[in-house]
Amino acid sequence: EQDWHKWPAAPSFSIPAEASAKYEPLARHSQEHFKVGIVWSGSPAFEHNKRRALTLTPFLELVRHFPQMRFFSFQKGAPESELNECGSGTIAHLGGSFDDFADTAAALQHMDLIIMTDSALAHLAGSYDIPVLNMLDYAPYWIYLPADTKTPIYPSMRLLRQNAPNDWEKPLKKIRTFLVKIVKPCSDKLTSQKTNSLFYEAQ
């Protein structure tokens, strides 16, 4: 067994009661629907962010193709403006309400799935065992090596890698395939339990 697979699991963290109370209404929001959190960019100040970031547009396509789901933006910073520039559709924007990572973590507890390009939120979601589909650029952060679809650090995360630099078609296609897979057997009644079962079977 490679040393890579012997890394310790991510530590668990508690969430301050104040932050939990702030996002408790999410538990009642769209109760009958599957909740998907999205992030399309890390901090633009990061030197290699352009290489790892997408735009909102591909996520709007997911919103259009999967009306059974409810999408929530966890995006922070300058890329938030795309929600106004492109039209947010039915995406509910949460990112603007986050004061710190405690707020973000509290909101994450109410999501069934996170779909994103790599940023700090991927590590936060992975630490809380939230299912994450993390799209990686061609030469990602070293912690995701070697080329694999899973990481022992975050068992709830699946890694979707580019075939070539700036080519997002492969990871986006895998996301669409996965969402179709969970929609078909569940119809409009998507549940976390059913989805987690399919998620952990995914390679």
Descriptive key words:
203 residues, alpha/beta, 33% helix
What is the strand and helix layout of this fold?
Elements: H1 17-22, E1 34-39, H2 49-52, H3 57-65, E2 69-73, H4 82-85, E3 92-93, H5 101-108, E4 113-117, H6 120-127, E5 132-136, E6 157-161, H7 169-186, H8 192-201
Parallel strand pairs: 1-2, 1-4, 2-3, 4-5, 5-6
Helix pairs in contact: 7-8
Topology pattern, helix = H, strand = E: HEHHEHEHEHEEHH
Helix content: 25-40%
**So what's the oligomer here?**
single chain
Radius of gyration: 16 Å
Based on secondary structure, the structural category is alpha/beta
End-to-end separation in angstroms reads 19 Å
Characterize the biggest β-sheet: 6 strands, parallel
Strands across the major sheet, in which order?
3-2-1-4-5-6
Q: Mean of residue pLDDT? A: 87
Shape: globular
| Contiguous helical run count | 8
Number of E strands: 6
Word description of this protein:
The chain is of the alpha/beta class. Helix content is 33%, strand content 14%. It is built from 8 helices and 6 strands, in the order αβααβαβαβαββαα. The chain has a 6-stranded parallel β-sheet, sandwiched between helices. Strand 4, helix 6 and strand 5 form a beta-alpha-beta unit. The mean pLDDT is 87.
How would you concisely characterize the structure shown here?
The chain has helices at residues 17-22, 49-52, 57-65, 82-85, 101-108, 120-127, 169-186, 192-201; strands at 34-39, 69-73, 92-93, 113-117, 132-136, 157-161.
